[in-house]
Design brief:
homodimer; 21% strand; alpha/beta; Aldehyde Dehydrogenase, Chain A, domain 2
Chain lengths: 418, 418
């Protein structure tokens, strides 16, 4: 079959499954999730064997050690995949939730009710656990999912997909609720991006290049996750011990992720007391510090931060530091150089904290807490399918609710318009 | 200046204005709206004179009578424009509204707060009142707006834009909160669609061709409004007098709009009692009826409905009628042929009504009320900037809330991640 026809056939099957999924009870969706988790555990040997094929050819393809590590399954990771699916069972079903109700002067009772989006396509890279994570979130939210993983995880993704589809059939859900795209033809991604008639949303998960490619070529709406240039602002009224703990955690605990701090902004009134100590601690953890002139005047051996540093998402043990005159200057810096992802203020002044929260429009704005909490699990969404850095549809971590839309419903007793 | 550079300059100015708008108090935004309404009234003569230039050349361009009517301003329409702006003053400001709050086991207080989207581009056709409507909704929701109207309303749109910008300056809001694109170069629309760095959302308002063009060519997210193939289903338990009133209103009261009924579905148990009378009434109002075989067996002179009729958005005094075996068949018909816009069930059985509401996922699902109520004003949103028929970001009429996004906010007391 030609690639274009294959893509359309996948889209049609997904659309049909979505119709059936929208009607499923919470109970049946939960039973399907339990069957999925049980299937992943029961078929562990099969999954590891298929994964070994991918890992085996990964070396030949010249993939990096980090990519091979992300690709590799072992019994612990398979168990974690099953546990992740079971976690979704306990979350509230967003579908048919009434989010608001009101009455009109003519007696009409109006409300808004959550409904599934319909069909969601996920385009992702090396991690095979995304297959199970995304499929289970889509099942719970009543959406059919089309999963297009990277060719380096081809056997693993197909095997996980087979197990999840078996679970759907076993529990009485539509088999095509979950489809793993087998084709590794480069043209397939292009065809998937054209399925506007069948697909409601595309979520690309991977590097910036992949996301920009999908956004530029898709006829289907795309939720984008670009970079996270996250800031911590230490205010003149900050508890400086707390500020040090938060700064260290935000930079060092896991520097390679999008919600790690990249730039530290410090009020000039506390910079002389705060910066020497915190920079010492950061260096003890292996962090290279680049600073503005004021920072360099306060601490020895800080290399100069250039204009490009304020824009940079290092994703590494590197930090840019800038001394600012006040909170206004900190907010200006964030607006100029930030990526609308995550910002923290450390201050004991509740008024300033509320002002910062009101004025900074990043996807998460925190007071006296590490930037690392901008994560679906940590914020209490239960799980996340991704983080959106664009404001359309969803902004920040996307959980089950963000995989739904809302419809209006109206109860009348014969009203007509004049 | 080249068109591409002009577009980028417009985008930059809008982005800058958006930063200032996000900080404005509700009071200042309301004062700006009051100044806008006052300006429209005070400058009526200027607006009518500029409008006369457009209307004068409309004949030369061979525009239809209907288009010229939509284009024409008169004192009543100018007064209505000012009144429409004043209506927005009374609506609640969605910005900084906290939509939800919860607490995490580690003590973090988490919530979601509404924020402006940022910059919105509206691309529209002949009606100059859209300029004032869209600008006032964007002002209240804290968004900067780029308005690209049709060349046939060039002088009118520019004049309205000038008056609104004067009002912004007078009230202390940024002048570039409202920009009317003067260029009528065809290439300008293409350039506006590329401004992903500066624009958050594009709303095209006009015919399906315009909307498809924008959706296919835009790098910026687009809210789409395709056709409305709206259904009324008359159930076996319907009050047939009510069903007749609703059917007539849905078809006849204003047949040219998207929320008018296009197909009437009737339960076979009541079809013999219901159809002859309602079809008589419809014909008295000038409606041409096309029906399925069962309909034709019950009523004389009904022409046969073909497959294409079930898909058709007539926007005219034409109606397709089909007799169905039960509610399931009605829902199947709606899923097969509907456009996810508006559907009504007429029934006295509350259980069936709730089942219909739960299972039909159109943007508005009504019980015992005319389809014509799917409208921002009628549903109580105060005003609407458009109706979305896609489920991403907003579904159905879009009011002020739908012109916002939400951010997460977090108050902690020093929490860090382990």
């Amino acid at each position: 079959m030609a690639v274009a026809e294959e893509a359309i056939a996948i889209g049609r099957r997904a659309r049909e499954a979505a119709g059936a999924l929208a009607d499923l009870s919470t109970e049946l969706k939960n039973q399907t999730l339990v069957a999925m988790a049980g299937g992943i555990e029961a078929r562990q040997e099969f999954l590891l064997a298929e994964n070994a094929k991918d890992v085996g050819s990964a070396g030949d393809k010249g993939l990096s050690k980090a990519v091979i590590d992300r690709l590799t399954l072992n019994p612990q990771r398979v168990a974690a995949m099953a546990a992740g699916i079971r976690d979704i069972v306990a979350l509230p079903d967003p579908v048919r939730q009434v989010t608001r109700k009101w009455q009109r002067p003519n007696g009409l009772e109006v409300g808004k009710m959550r409904i599934p989006l319909g069909v969601i396509t996920i385009i992702y890279e090396a991690r095979p656990n995304v297959t199970a994570d995304a499929a289970s979130l889509c099942m719970k939210s009543g959406n059919a999912v089309i999963l297009k993983g990277g060719s380096e995880a081809k056997f693993s993704n197909q095997a996980i997909g087979d197990v999840l589809r078996e679970a759907c059939v076993q529990a009485g859900a539509p088999e095509d609720a979950v489809q793993v795209v087998g084709s590794t033809d480069r043209a397939m991604i292009h065809e998937l991006l054209k399925l506007e008639e069948y697909v409601d949303l595309i979520i690309p998960r991977g590097g910036e290049e992949l996301i920009r490619f999908v956004a530029a070529n898709s006829l289907v709406p795309v939720v984008k996750h670009y970079k996270g240039v996250c800031h911590v602002y230490v205010d003149s009224d900050a508890d400086l011990d707390m500020a040090e703990r938060i700064s260290l955690n935000a930079k060092v605990q896991r520097p390679s992720v999008c919600n790690a701090m990249e730039t530290l902004l410090v009020h000039e009134a506390v910079a002389p007391r705060f910066l020497p100590g915190v920079i010492d601690r950061l260096r003890e953890s292996g962090v290279e510090v680049r600073g503005c002139e004021k920072t360099r005047a306060l601490v020895d051996g800080v290399s100069p931060a250039r204009e490009a540093d304020w824009h940079e998402e290092y994703l590494d043990l590197v930090l840019a530091v800038r001394v600012v005159a006040d909170m206004d200057e900190a907010i200006e810096h964030i607006r100029e150089y930030g990526s609308d992802h995550t910002e923290t203020i450390v201050t004991a002044d509740r008024g300033k904290a509320e002002d910062f929260v009101a004025r900074v429009n990043s996807s998460a704005v925190l007071v006296n807490a590490s930037t690392r909490f901008n994560d679906g699990g940590e914020l209490g969404l239960g799980a996340e399918i991704g983080i959106s850095t664009s404001k359309i549809h969803a902004f920040g971590p996307m959980g089950l609710e963000e995989l739904t839309s809302t419809k209006f419903f109206v109860f009348g007793d014969g009203q007509v318009r004049n």
